[in-house]
Write a structure and sequence with these properties.
Length: 197
């Protein structure tokens, strides 16, 4: 029997889950014990407090995770929160590779969820790096110099799109690869499109 607190879309998600099914179900049970509202966002179970995202359940090949949307603000006395990649600013994950790991630290997981709710109640925000604080690769700067229309188009993009390009262009170690990426996406930028549009 389905509890009134559960969301049918999450029921469907769990029914279709082949990997991490038991782990997802246990995480769901823990989160619902914390009185959050179950929703389905970004194709995953997402739990909210007063319409603010608190945690999301998701899985990868190597692990499943409880993602705290403002995890960077949690105290993390156990040192168990993981920053998914160096470019993720606010979110942090609790990662699990089996059901026993979740059961073993259930009370800790709940404590982190309750702290995340308190962070939301207090209206705390993660101070995100501004786009201008990211290092623009010199290959992009030189392309801007030789092609001012590109610079104008780039500056007209949303800050999120600018950041995505800067990070994508900066990633390769070799200059020729960075140049090749910039050339590949020049027309996208001129058309006002983001990296994934």
């Amino acid at each position: 029997m389905r509890s009134s607190k559960t969301n049918p879309k999450v029921d469907d998600f769990l029914a279709k889950s082949q990997k991490w099914k038991e782990e997802y179900e246990k995480l769901r049970e823990i989160v619902l014990d914390c009185e959050l509202i179950e929703e389905f966002k970004w194709m995953h179970p997402c739990y909210t407090f007063e319409k603010k995202n608190i945690v999301l359940i998701h899985g990868f090949k190597e692990y499943c995770a409880l993602l705290f949307h403002k995890g960077a603000l949690l105290k993390d006395p156990q040192g168990i929160l993981v920053q998914q990649t160096e470019n993720v600013q606010a979110a942090r994950q609790l990662r699990f590779t089996n059901l026993e790991e979740i059961v073993e630290i259930e009370s800790t997981v709940k404590a982190y969820i309750y702290e995340a709710i308190e962070v939301e109640k207090a209206g705390l925000e993660v101070s995100l790096k501004k786009t201008r604080e990211f290092m623009v690769p010199e290959e992009l700067e030189s392309k801007f110099s030789e092609f001012p229309a590109l610079k104008t188009a780039f500056e007209a993009l949303t800050p999120g799109r600018q950041r995505a390009y800067i990070l994508h262009f900066s990633k390769p170690k070799q200059s020729k690869t960075r140049i090749s990426r910039i050339e590949k996406y020049t027309q996208y930028i001129l058309n006002g499109k983001g990296l994934n549009d």
